[in-house]
Amino acid sequence: MSEKKSNEIVVGRTKSVEDYVLDIISLFNQGSQEVEIKGNGFEINKVVDIYNQLVDRLKEGVKLEKVDIGSEVKDKRRVSYLLLKLRRVY
Fold first, then answer.
1. Residue 74: domain span
2. Is residue 2 a part of any domain in this protein?
3. Average pLDDT for 68-80
4. DSSP secondary-structure letter at 13?
5. Which stretches make up the DNA/RNA-binding protein Alba-like domain (predicted)?
């Protein structure tokens, strides 16, 4: 099991897209240069929505550095994931 990094946002079902967007903006404002957003299974579409809202708000202030698509085994099932690495541009 991998450790959650301080600049990693793991998307779940409990929070709204707007809440995640505000969390990421807060991380950038606190000095983080990079933030990773990860969603598994049904949360993949939420990751895309979060990214699109960030771009709408920050415009050229955020850059998509890397996209990682894959799958991992959880509870004996293979689950797809999407990981986006974002960089703050000043």
1. 8-88
2. no
3. 95
4. S
5. 7-71
Q: Is residue 82 part of a domain?
A: yes
pTM: 0.89
**Residue 7 to residue 28: CA distance in whole angstroms:** 9
Cα–Cα distances in angstroms (integers) from residue 85 to residues 34, 62, 68, 77, in the given order: 7, 10, 8, 25
pLDDT score for 80: 97
The answer to whether residue 33 sits within a structural domain is yes
R_g (Cα) of the chain, nearest Å: 13
Query: What CATH number should be reported for the domain holding residue 69?
Result: 3.30.110.20
Q: Give the pair of three-digit tokens for residue 85.
A: 């690495």
Place of tokens 């990094």: 5
